[in-house]
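Weekly modeling sync, notes
Attendees: S.R. (lead), two postdocs, one rotation student

Agenda item 3: backlog of single-chain predictions. S.R. asked that every request posted to the team notebook include the full sequence so nobody has to chase files. The rotation student volunteered to paste the first one in as an example of the format we agreed on. Action items at the bottom.

Example entry:
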Amino acid sequence: MLKLITFSPAMVYANCYILKDTESGEALVVDPGCFNRRLEAILKDEGISSLRYILLTHGHFDHISGVGDLQSAYGGEVVIHLEDAPCLHNRDESLASKFHFSQNEARADIVLDGGEELSFGNYTIKVLHTPGHTRGSVCYTIDGLMFSGDTLFKDTVGRTDFPGGSYGEMMLSMNKLAALEKDYTVYPGHDVSTTLKREKRFNPYMKGI
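Predicted structure, as returned to the notebook:
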């Protein structure tokens, strides 16, 4: 069984997710925008002493700034798309310098193209390349869950006006998500969860696709 915990550090106002396969004991973290005592306490309370993966939906600083410290403390392979991998060691690429935010350097262990499948305990993580917010934005699906980063939100989509963003690419990514037959509970990079079925019906960027 999968156990999901949402952690939203006030310093970056982005959602971080901790996922644990309770049968195998494997665990991963999605988008650690920071690594602080509260996140460490959650991992300790869950009995997590090491990580299988650190999954990154894209390379903006508010989603990756905790990667280096988290990996040093808990291990885990850092997973990011090829197009956003430079963000891990370049504050200009991650927009950290633009927003005057500190960021420890990190490196990718698994560089994605899109379409990959990653083994996680008794489950399989599937990677969907969904550019639009950034060139290397991805969504991860596992069982009935989708981690959509800043691609898909309840009733809207991510910004496309940052460097590497593209409204046209975002609409193509919405087409890709709308074509998925299975429903997912969608856990975005900010704000509240939703479902893919609901977004297909009500999201103006996806409705009628």
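Discussion: group reviewed the output briefly. The first strand starts at residue 2 and ends at 7.
Action items: rotation student to repeat for the remaining queue; S.R. to check formatting next week.
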